């Protein structure tokens, strides 16, 4: 993980720390950012710029936006509190109607500077 990615995660954590979504703030221990453009060439992932796998945030470009890092770090936070329910929710709700996706989008909007 590059120093720029570490700084981006720290900024994302600071933004999420302003929210009361879960009883314990998001923890960055073990969280890393991996740049893997090839990952987003897979048919089901072409429309995404970021993806969260437990404590790994995979991004398409080497310079992800702060909003993208907040969104994906919110998914890390969700999995820290609901390690089974959160990933399984995609089987039940899909992507568009998923309450965890809505929560991550809301977290980005609520913490964005005007």
Structure at a glance:
With 114 residues, the protein is mainly alpha-helical. 46% of the residues lie in helices and 11% in strands. It starts with a helix and ends with a helix.
Secondary-structure map with pairings?
Blueprint: H1 3-16, E1 32-35, E2 50-53, E3 56-59, H2 66-81, H3 85-93, H4 99-111
Parallel strand pairs: 1-3
Antiparallel strand pairs: 2-3
Helix pairs in contact: 1-2, 2-4
Description:
The chain contains four helices and three strands. It is mostly helical and 114 residues long. The chain has a single domain, classed as Orthogonal Bundle (Arc Repressor Mutant, subunit A). It has a three-stranded mixed β-sheet with strand order 1-3-2, with helices on one face. A hairpin with a 2-residue loop joins β2 and β3. α1 packs across α2 and α2 crosses α4. The radius of gyration is 13 Å and the shape is globular.
Low-confidence stretches: none
Q: What is the strand content?
A: 5-15%
Query: Which CATH class applies here?
Result: Mainly Alpha
Distance separating the two termini: 29 Å
Number of helices: 4
C-alpha-based Rg, rounded: 13 Å
Strand adjacency order, main sheet: 1-3-2
Instruction: Average the pLDDT over all residues and give the rounded result.
Output: 96
The total strand number stands at: 3
Could you state the order of secondary-structure elements as H and E? HEEEHHH
Q: What structural class do you assign from the helix and strand content? A: mainly alpha
CATH architecture: Orthogonal Bundle
Helicity range of the residues? Answer: 40-55%
